[in-house]
Design goal:
Blueprint lengths: L2 H22 L14 E7 L6 E7 L14 E6 L2 H17 L7 E5 L7 H8 L16 H19 L2 E11 L1 H12 L6 E5 L5 H4 L1 H11 L5 E8 L19 H14 L5 E8 L7 H14 L8
Parallel strand pairs: 3-4, 3-5, 5-6, 6-7, 7-8
Antiparallel strand pairs: 1-2, 2-4
Helix pairs in contact: 2-9, 5-7
């Protein structure tokens, strides 16, 4: 190829590639953010806690249809909302659009505004002060439950047509610990509990004595409880210290709690348990949540085409 022709070819190729790059490079300063359809954010300054939280709500596709104007819906309340709300929104989108699920409302609970998310959740979702003497507050579940019962849920259930008799509480890790504690503390608040990767190791397995105490004081427990654990889970936060953990097997801990609950033979308690093969502590929640949703809300199997 003659030098002049070669130069022209290289120049044209460079400009072409530059044009492609300009067309495909995202304009991050002007592009609109992705938004979850039919979702709303309510900011709630808690009188109980003296902190501010966001409440995320997603409505099902049929919520605003005229024929549903008087209909009330089940609701799933999700702790760790910045994570769990997005997961729940994604996994319900197709089942809702295809009519595979009966419709329900999602309510996500954020971390406290202006706080580190890990410290916010460890304070709010733990029922007892941590025996490991953390440098920040723990054991705030009682106050957080008061906030949930008397501020967050009334906000959601005043603004939207939620049926209080059909509430579900879903939580992962500390969220599962919190949910199980709510079951033993205020069992009337929720009909269903989805507890994934529950931190039963916390405070030397303190939930087991609490379960025993509850059984001694109650003859029945009206709830559906879904436990899910990843087959590969181990409680790294425990530090594997014998003084803090009598068992570092989270799979075994779940099995022990399930066995204890089933042994009580509560007439109105249904306990479901699942081990998610191949899953870890960070990957169990989506599978466990969808599994529970299918059991609670499935209308009919979707035929494969």
């Amino acid at each position: 190829m003659p030098p002049r022709a070669a130069l022209l070819f290289l120049t044209t190729t460079f400009l072409f590639r530059l044009g492609i790059a300009a067309e495909t490079t995202p304009a991050t300063d002007t592009a609109p953010p992705f938004q979850i359809e039919r979702s709303h954010v309510h900011t709630l300054a808690s009188r109980t806690l003296g902190r501010t939280y966001d409440i995320y709500v997603k409505l099902p596709p049929g919520y605003d249809k005229p024929e549903n104007a008087q209909r009330k819906y089940p609701a799933i309340y999700l702790t760790d909302g910045p994570y769990t709300f997005q997961v729940a929104s994604g996994v319900t989108r197709v089942p809702f659009s295809q009519g595979t699920f009966d419709e329900f409302i999602l309510v996500g609970l954020s971390y406290a505004q202006g706080e580190d998310s890990a410290q916010s959740r460890e304070r709010d979702l733990t029922p007892f002060a941590d025996v490991r003497n953390k440098p920040y507050p723990t054991g705030g579940a009682t106050a957080y439950l008061d906030f949930l019962e008397h501020e967050a849920m009334p906000l959601a259930e005043t603004a939207y047509r939620i049926d209080p008799a059909q509430r579900t509480l879903a939580g992962q890790s500390y969220g599962g610990l919190f949910g199980l504690w709510v079951l033993f503390t205020e069992p009337h608040l929720f009909r269903n509990y989805v507890l994934t990767s529950t931190s039963l190791w916390y405070n030397r397995r303190a939930m087991f004595p609490l379960e025993t105490k509850f059984a001694a004081q109650h003859r029945d427990l009206n709830a559906n409880v879904y436990f899910a654990i990843g087959a590969n889970e181990h409680p790294a936060p425990c530090g594997r210290l014998a003084s803090e953990c009598s068992n570092d097997d989270m799979v075994g801990d779940q099995a022990a709690m399930v066995k204890a609950l089933r042994s009580r033979r509560y007439r109105n308690l249904k306990v479901h348990a699942k081990i998610v093969e191949g899953a870890y502590h960070t990957t169990t929640f989506p599978v466990g949540l969808l599994w529970a949703m299918q059991d609670l809300f499935l209308t009919h199997p979707l035929e494969t085409k």
